[in-house]
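Final report, Chapter 2: Outcomes

The project's central promise was a pipeline that accepts a single protein chain and returns its three-dimensional structure in a standardized token representation, suitable for archiving and comparison. That pipeline is now operational. To close this chapter, we reproduce one record exactly as it appears in the project archive, with the input sequence first and the structure output second.
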Amino acid sequence: MVFKRKYPKPDLSEEDLNKLRRIRSSMKEEKRRVTRASIILDYLEDYSDDRIAARNGMNKNTVKKCLSKLREFGMEAALNDLPRPGKPRTITDDDKSWILNLACTKPAEHGYPDELWPYTLLTGHIRKNRSSLKNISRSTVFEILNEAEIKPHKIRYYVEKRDPDFEGKMATVLHVYKEVDMINNGFIIPELKDTITVSFDEKPGMQAISMTSEELPPVPGKYPSATRDYEYKRLGTLSLLAGIDLHSGIVTETVSRTHNSNDFIAFLKKLDSSYPKDKRIRVILDNLRVHTSAKTREFLLTVPNRFDFVFTPKHGSWLNIVETLFSKLARTMLREIRVKSMDELKDRIDQYFQEINKSPVIFRWKYKMDDITIA
């Protein structure tokens, strides 16, 4: 039975409704905003005040106050606290500017060993060095910085485009991906009918780690997961060189204990033996020195017109599709792996790619592909 209300419902847009739903399902919003969003949504679904209170675990007066604000001041006012009269504002604009300027400096500039500003340290420094703020609370400092969208306790990373031709080289790589996508979808590009495109990269430093004591298996009802001793032994590292055929999804890989020109040449030889001799192999790779070393160039002279290298821009390895494969490897097979020897790690990596090649997946690049056209 629909509950008939004394007042008409507020006119909320679909955008407003979506915002209310997001707040109600959010794990990061303040609890009071989540509760108020839930009250409003229940109200719009014609629940009575008593029913809304029961559904949200509160008393009826709380529901009435929220809905009263909704009718009088609108949705935003209902979600937040109304301004309250009381003690005049004591933090001036100059004080706020001083806090913001301080938060944009390094703690080391003020004699602290910290790299970033923990809020406790920042608040303490403010109290000591600004007499008008000697009683400021940590939460007030947070509110001031949050309003200015400054997070002095965090750091973000970026990749500087040090390659002056970054955009041009990126366009070249994306052009290759566009060609591959067209070929895979049945388009014929005459000059590429005998070309295979492979996305290649190295993953050095894969650690072979062994246990120093026996691993204990899960026990139903007692131990939900395998249990290991904290101590372990490092046996050494291996390097993986892998290329994924962008037409078939087949992976060609080699694993070695070194990471030099000889290893790269060994990979190229394996790649060479994997395809008919009348095919040209186009390899997308980064600018690592071994890819253009004297030894590598000498080998390429022995197989003329066999390989065509397409280099990603410097600091542009993220443009290489094979990085997706390496990410999956790190998150699955290599995660928490323990072995008894370096050879065991190599064998298990080889086996991993053998299993992948039984059901290969063609990786497709999507970012900025709509901007690329083939003449």
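Archive annotation: The chain has a mean pLDDT of 89.
This record, like all others produced under the grant, will remain available to the consortium after the project formally closes.
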